Amino acid sequence: AIVGAVLIGGIVEGVLGLFAKYWIKIVAPIVAASVVTSIGFSLLSVGANSFGGGSGSKNFGAWENW
């Protein structure tokens, strides 16, 4: 199932990439920047969790996890 999802996702991304010169005119740079920034901010919690040792760690946030 994962391999199929990767293949389908790659095909969809390739097709979208072919039409990038057309939709780049529609999407303003400020919209693209705000979307990328929103995605980055939503991933901050994931990075902080991994940095602390992961959600299943018995000693979450301990120095040995750094």
How would you describe what is shown here?
- It is a single chain.
- The chain is built from 3 helices and no strands.
- By secondary structure, the chain is mainly alpha-helical.
- The protein has one domain.
- The two termini are 35 Å apart.
Short recap of the structure:
With 66 residues, the protein is mostly helical. The chain has helices at 2-18, 20-23, 29-51.
- Percent in helix: 55-70%
How much is the average pLDDT? 87
How far the N terminus sits from the C terminus, by CA atoms, comes to 35 Å
Strand content: under 5%
List the helices and strands and how they pair.
Layout (H helix, E strand, L loop, with lengths): L1 H17 L1 H4 L5 H23 L15
Summary tags:
single chain; 66 residues; 0% strand; 3 helices; mainly alpha
